[in-house]
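Morning run. Coffee first, then this:
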Amino acid sequence: MEKVKKVLITGATGFIGRQVAQRLAPRKLDLTGIVRPETSRKRLEPLEGFMTLAKIDLSDIPALKKFLAENEFDAILHIGAIRGGRRFPKKKYYAANVLATEQLMLAAYRTKARFVFCSSVGVFGAIPNELPANDLTERQRDGYYHETKIEAEAIVQKMVLEGLDGYIIRPSITYGPGDYGFPYTLTKLVDKRMLFLPNRTVRIHLTDVNILADVFAKTLEAQLTPGSAYIVADRQPVSLLELADEIHEKLHGKPYPRNRIVSGMWFRLGERIAKWMKSDLWLARFRLISRSWFYDVENTYEEFNIRHQRTLVGFKSVLDFYRKK
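And here it is:
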């Protein structure tokens, strides 16, 4: 492909988008970031020195179409989305996660730009039906966020058949400084000894945000097969108990208390209650700490030649961030 000069990044102030933007900054590219109009000044400041910011809500399709009609890019890294668990109407989820993807993809197709879509391993469900999950694993619409990602992926693949230079990146749950999601919450629960674990081995598969940023950066220059999808996560899954021990050792100097290991029946009960309450968020929370979820990342490491990362080593960045907060 021709050398990329102008790059559009959606979700530039989000946890992943910010890391990708900062990774690309030294390349002296012409970077533009799409950010929400209501984004605070504090979140915008780290990006203002090296990229142009366009204040557009991804769910505002007319505004997005107007912007794309007036601007052209060599590559579009579509990372922005309304994430799962947030309290928005389904209409807003659909507009931001599906319709916006369609508009960005059509703009890339029209201008022959490379289009890289940040999806999620959630397309396989919170807990995949097979382990390790891979590109052929059955999709599960077990939450509206996952459903929007499945639909957006289908749109991308359809346009690839029409000639779109398009690719899909599926990160697992990502960790690193600056994020308050699952890894930070896990650390807090372990610190307060409020995390209960099932009395069986649970293996989970997290993603160091630096590895994910590397993959996105390399998509701008790598020779790839259009339509390819890549699962991004650390090289190997980790035992949840081992991770809890590591966190507790670093914070308190001893392994996590074994009296916090309980029968799996309590987690099954929690799932039933969450289903009765129709809470996708709480259902996912119970499942993420009581069932295994890991993925086949072999082709990602081969294709992008990224460094291997052990979660127990990389997780130090979360602990350092947690201590500061």
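The first helix runs from residue 15 to 24. Good start to the day.
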